Amino acid sequence: MLAASGLAYVYGRWPLNEQHQILGTIPFTMGGGILAYLQLMRMKNVILASITVPLGAQFAIGDSWASDQLTEVITQILAVIFFIGAGNTMNDIKDVAIDKSAHPERPLAAELISLENAKKFAYLLWILSISFVIIGAYLLHSRGESPVELIIIYVTAVALMITYDHGPALKNTGLKGNVAISIMVGAVILYGASSVGNLWTHLVWWTAGVVFFANLAREIIKDCQDMEADQGIRTTLPMSLGLVKSRMLAYVVVMAALVCLYIPYWQGPFEFNQLIYQTPAILMLITLNRELAVGNDYQAASKIRIAMLLGLVGFIVPMQI
């Protein structure tokens, strides 16, 4: 919703002739327009990523960011929204041939959006994202905080994004691509902390670890789900290791996420009895083996996404009481 309203606001503020210069003749109607472009951005992923920016700030300095550094955090929420949206758009442009069989409902595969307009849309999203990073860096500098960490994390994420879809095309190399995309997802927590100039808090890094390992497991499981469609196009882990072993490895990676989830309650800053707030996330991850055992990859990937959200909530709750 935030991404939709932000994009609509930016777009609506420009004169019509400038809109068409940038976006061509994109039909902004609910049938094949705004809704299709929001689907192209993959709003579930965008919303999940954007939520982790204020959480990173929260884990870094507590509630004080809401009154002292709200502007900085909002600018980086927008930077991440447009960054993730641009990356997902580039991914769909690259994968349009695969998606015609694996995900025919996606906007490019369903021909709701032309490739030319999708490329222009990705270009617009990159401009918006970089603009908000520059604004955030300026705000940090004006407060006497270092913007270096913010810029380094963003540039690293851009480099990973480019090498994921282009460059050496890591997404076609299986596990390397899974690791690259998971680093980008986990780095959003670190990015949120750097947006308030306080990256080096232990809780921030353990939380980023939870997100990294959970997303890595999810990427492996998604490759299991898409193995037939990926034949001849990508060399994924399930192709070389097999479906059963890949699902087993995904479950081991999930256990690594659980270790990262546990340590802040063992070594601080939380009390051990507060681990109860992580019960929903822990149960959802532990019971994941049921879906993996029967090969229900879609359900397993969905449970991991939900568990990540519950785990983040489980970190927030003890900070509020």
Describe, in plain words, how this protein is organized in 3D.
The protein has about 325 residues and is mainly α. The chain has a domain at about 1-15 and about 25-200: Orthogonal Bundle (Tetracycline Repressor, domain 2). Helix content is about 75%, strand content about 0%. It is built from 17 helices and no strands. It has helices spanning about 1-15, 15-25, 35-40, 45-60, 65-70, 70-95, 95-100, 115-140, 150-165, 175-195, 200-225, 225-230, 235-240, 245-265, 280-285, 290-295, 295-320. Helix 10 (about 175-195) packs antiparallel against helix 11 (about 200-225). The two termini are about 30 Å apart. About 45% of the residues are buried. Mean pLDDT is about 85; it is low at about 1-30.
Uncertain runs: 1-31
Approximately what portion of the residues adopt beta-strand conformation?
under 5%
Class from helix and strand fractions: mainly alpha
Number of helices: 17
Please report the total strand number as a whole number: 0
Assembly state (oligomeric): single chain
Average pLDDT, rounded to a whole number, is 86
**Fourth-tier CATH superfamily name of the domain at 2-16 and 27-200:** UbiA prenyltransferase
CATH architecture of the domain at 2-16 and 27-200: Orthogonal Bundle
Rg result: 20 Å
Strand and helix order: HHHHHHHHHHHHHHHHH
Helix amount, in percent?
A: over 70%
State the shape: globular
What is the CATH domain class of the domain at 2-16 and 27-200? Mainly Alpha
In CATH terms, what is the fold-level topology of the domain at 2-16 and 27-200?
Tetracycline Repressor, domain 2
Give a short account of the largest sheet.
none
| N/C terminus separation | 29 Å
